[in-house]
């Protein structure tokens, strides 16, 4: 597939951001969750879009649904906490971040893990005593520091696409994470029944891929 364009860290200030999601896009995401009510990434994408539109009450519901379907979506905990903070629900946000920290630690999602630790500290909340990963990791020939996991992994042999998106993935995503996405991407296509020739379906696929690989801020 081809390309498209991680939300900022959770903070009450994020609620003042200018909405960047069109009503048409929201309607499309809602339809996808209605059509495929067991797809956690569908609810994740809708929840993120609602957060970006400052519709925090609905964002919370959809992100909680995504986590009920797949509790390993570590980034969903971050977004959930952002909406909870925007609604003044700091205790709930602290719990969401604490739960997400454990998930991120267990999955090796170090970028998300460090983001959650920073937010818990800003909230004055206790941070569980996990082993702190090395900040400086040796990157050898044929390796890359994976943006998704924060770990050094094998470099892809070539960009997966002949465009800017492909280059971003080549420069920042390991072959191991890419292999995981290929499996997940096949699931997305099959479950959502995406017609690959349709630009709207392409956009849905790309959004799922960007979320999975944690590269939105690089696009």
What's the overall geometry?
globular
Structural class: mainly alpha
Within the largest sheet, what's the order of strands?
1-2
The count of strands amounts to 2
**Which H/E pattern describes the elements?**
HHHHHHEEHHH
Helix count?
A: 9
Strand content: under 5%
Uncertain residue segments: 1-19
Tell me the radius of gyration.
Answer: 17 Å
What's the story with the biggest beta sheet?
2 strands, antiparallel
Percent of residues in helices comes to 55-70%
- Cα separation of the termini: 16 Å
Give the arrangement of secondary structure elements.
Blueprint: H1 23-35, H2 40-52, H3 56-69, H4 74-86, H5 90-107, H6 110-122, E1 143-145, E2 152-154, H7 164-172, H8 175-192, H9 199-213
Antiparallel strand pairs: 1-2
